[in-house]
TrEMBL record:
Purpose: In eubacteria ppGpp (guanosine 3'-diphosphate 5'-diphosphate) is a mediator of the stringent response that coordinates a variety of cellular activities in response to changes in nutritional abundance.
Classification of source organism: Bacteria, Pseudomonadati, Pseudomonadota, Alphaproteobacteria, Sphingomonadales
Enzyme class: transferase
Listed name of the protein: GTP pyrophosphokinase rsh
Source organism of the structure: Erythrobacter mangrovi
Catalytic activity, reaction form: GTP + ATP = guanosine 3'-diphosphate 5'-triphosphate + AMP
GO MF entry, a single one: guanosine-3',5'-bis(diphosphate) 3'-diphosphatase activity
Keywords: Hydrolase
EC number: 2.7.6.5
Gene3D superfamilies, A to Z: 3.10.20.30, 3.30.70.260, Beta Polymerase, domain 2, Hypothetical protein af1432
PROSITE patterns listed in its UniProt record: ACT, HD, TGS
Superkingdom in the source lineage: Bacteria
Domain ACT: 624-696
Gene Ontology cellular-component terms listed: plasma membrane
Length: 696
């Protein structure tokens, strides 16, 4: 553990103007506050914040960050308060400590019960000042280094999984690869102990048998580059066990089949020498096509720059090579922290693009579980590059689609997407993008996000935006049904209801907007009696205490509402426009629409029934038919022809019975209304290919 004077000396080495008194005060404060507390290792608890502060000095961070590292656990684990921190160390340090504390509190909760509000506060604090994240990453790295002291296997697994899912990707996104690799290694050891032991043992075996082969290859590369007049530093190593494990899992291969387990790094003096070195390597050894990546001309979003290539050394040995300048190497290993300088008027922009996306995800996410899912997606590591027609570059996760691309460009563009061209060709929206694709988004001002998109989008921003749009539309349509029901309820009170009465009712019901009230009515979250009492207090005193009073007798129209959003069409009877319908209103579930003769209605459903109508010009639904064909060649094609001639699309077709010479199918198809479905049934019954056709 660093002693007090050693920590101060470390800071003064790179920042001679640092406030020694504040650093000394913070060191003493954390020792006093943590007192006799101990860690699982048996060490004094204050050794942890001191070691985290030491990690921050390795990154040469400013004194406020060092003090924050020393104090980051005092509010959570001692009697100290944020007010105490602000009084003793200033507003900036208090704000940073508060930001780090927010996420630490979340970690103590079960995953399904995490507090979304605390995570929101952490992400917002991080967006305002990235030092919150840097301290938290240092805190997590030191905790991972001492994880083996925790006795509970379950707790070790939970912490390791959280590190792998959230903190290692966050470290990668700010370019702190050194932190990322170590956290992945330590987490991998806990999550897959058998695989970790097996791979490390194999690597040790290779190391003992290779006879200095890594050094020999590095020396060969250095000589080849020196002969070309290029001054370089060349180093080689085996890949990390986790990197090998992930490659084995992705490619479904054994350890023996992973041929490129050796990686070499070449450090040059300038950018020109990077490309010259690349040329020498490619002319001296065979280059593996498809394995070259130029992150110098096109850096990663976290600022990472390097040339990556793969070569065949000797007859069959594959090796990976990274080529970069010394400055690139320093930035690549420690990313944002490598050039972080907090000086008055010269503060770097903490709101890098992906961080702005995270804040947008915070606003769009509905609950804690959804927020965590979207956040994991937003820090996903493996990336591809795609371009707009004007040449703007966007980085996306592997598996991204044009819809992900559209939301990455702008949320409004994603919401208005109706089609896409990839490299000039019209392609389905679910098409996965490849490196270098040029994507043109076709939009319409009348379009809106579709629920079906959630089946193929992969970015957190897209998923959060789609879910939010669908929720808003669902709320609006349920509120529209609720407005119609409210108007009916208002007719049953002994007074004329105006705007003033509604405003007073909202106050009594503790609601802010009329739409809140209408949504509560439509979603059956409030009873008729409560609404009547809020509108005219005392008016329900003489009414019988029954769950359902006589309504006006006028059917509610569902015209203009969207099936699956404002209401659900029951799958048991598949009502279509023209059928006589009723609605079943279940608390919190909205309205389910049934045909009046649906057998399920006779089962005594104990819920609120609504008299519904389709409204004029209502169009579009799914009809279900049971069709028995003669079992001979061409009959299925004839049935399909009948559907096509009647302008109906088949959504599902299932063979339910084969009883020679008959075959029975259940078909779901898109129809406009009841007359349309009737015409299709008539055409089927008139066909020689059809033995029987009926609506289900």
């Amino acid at each position: 553990m660093l002693r007090q004077y050693e920590l101060v000396e470390r800071v003064l080495e790179y920042d001679p103007n640092a406030d020694q008194a504040m650093l000394n005060r913070a060191y003493v404060y954390t020792v006093q506050k943590h007192g006799t507390q101990t860690r699982a290792s048996g060490d004094p608890y204050f050794s942890h914040p001191v070691e985290v502060a030491g990690l921050m000095t390795d990154l040469k961070l400013d004194q406020e960050t060092i003090v924050t590292a020393l104090l980051h656990d005092t509010v959570e684990d001692t009697l100290a308060t944020i007010e105490d921190i602000e009084k003793n160390f200033g507003t900036d340090v208090a704000r940073l400590v508060d930001g780090v504390t927010k996420l630490s509190k979340i970690e103590q909760l079960p995953e399904n019960d995490r507090a979304a509000e605390n995570l929101r506060k952490f992400l917002l604090a991080m967006s305002e000042d990235i030092r919150v994240l840097l301290v938290k990453l240092g805190d997590r790295l030191h905790n991972m280094r001492t994880l083996h002291f925790i006795k509970s296997s379950e707790k070790r697994q939970r912490i390791a999984r959280e590190t792998m899912d959230i903190y290692a990707p966050l470290a990668e996104r700010v370019g702190m690869y050194e932190y990322m690799r170590e956290m992945q290694m330590l987490a991998f050891e806990q999550i897959e102990p058998e695989a970790y032991r097996t791979i490390t043992q194999r690597l040790e075996q290779i190391r003992s048998e290779d006879g200095g082969q890594v050094d020999a290859i590095a020396l060969d590369m250095k000589h080849a580059l020196a002969e070309a007049g290029i001054t370089t530093e060349v180093s080689g190593r085996e890949k990390h066990p986790y990197s090998i494990w992930r490659k084995m899992a992705e490619r479904h291969v054994s350890f023996e089949q992973v041929t490129d387990i050796m990686a070499f790094r070449i450090i040059t003096e300038d950018v020109v020498d990077c490309y010259r070195a690349l040329g020498v390597l490619h002319t001296t050894w065979q280059f593996l096509p498809g394995k070259f990546k130029d992150y110098i001309s096109t850096p990663k979003t976290n600022g990472y720059k390097s040339l990556h290539t793969s070569l065949i050394y000797g007859k069959s040995m594959r090796v990976e090579v990274q080529i970069r300048t010394r400055e690139m190497h320093r930035t690549n290993e420690f990313g944002l922290a490598a050039h972080w300088a907090y000086k008055q008027g010269n503060r770097p922009d903490g709101q890098v693009g992906w961080l702005r996306d995270l804040i947008e995800i915070v606003d769009a996410s509905h609950d804690a579980e959804e927020l965590l899912e979207h956040t994991r997606l937003a820090v996903y590591q493996d990336r591809i590059f795609a371009f707009t027609p004007k040449g703007a570059l966007f980085q996306l996760p592997k598996g991204a689609t044009p819809v992900d691309f559209a939301f990455a460009v702008h949320t409004d563009l994603g919401a208005q997407t109706v089609g896409a061209k990839i490299n000039g060709r019209h392609m389905p929206l679910r098409t996965q993008l490849n490196n270098g694709d040029v994507v043109e988004i076709i939009k319409s001002a009348k379009a809106e996000p579709q629920m079906s998109w959630l089946g193929f989008v992969v970015t957190g921003k897209a998923r959060a935006s789609i879910r939010r749009a669908v929720r808003l539309k669902e709320r609006a349509e349920i509120a529209e049904i609720g407005k119609k029901l409210f108007d009916e309820i208002a007719l049953r009170v002994p007074a004329k209801i105006g705007k003033k009465a509604v405003r007073e009712a909202l106050k009594r019901l503790d609601m802010e907007e009329e739409e809140d009230l209408f949504y509560a009515v439509g979603a059956a979250k409030i009873e008729d009696r409560q609404i009547m009492e809020a509108l005219v207090p005392g008016c329900t005193a003489d009414l019988e205490d029954e769950p359902d009073w006589t309504r006006s007798g006028k059917a509610l129209s569902i015209r203009g509402l969207t099936p699956g959003v404002g209401f659900q069409l029951a799958s048991c009877c598949h009502p279509v426009p023209g059928d006589r319908i009723v609605g079943i209103r279940k608390a919190g579930e909205g309205v389910e629409v049934h045909a009046i003769d649906c057998p399920q209605l006779a089962s005594g459903i104990d819920t609120d029934w609504l008299d519904l109508s389709w409204g004029k010009r209502s169009r579009g639904a799914v009809g279900q038919l049971r069709v028995t064909l003669y079992d001979r060649p061409g009959t299925l094609a004839e049935m399909a022809t009948i559907f096509a001639q009647n302008h109906s699309n088949v959504t599902t077709l299932e063979q339910t019975q084969l009883d020679h010479p008959f075959t029975t199918y259940e078909v779901e198809l898109e129809v406009q209304d009841l007359p349309h479905l009737t015409r299709i049934l008539s055409a089927l019954r008139a066909s020689d290919a059809v033995a029987q056709a009926e609506r289900v």
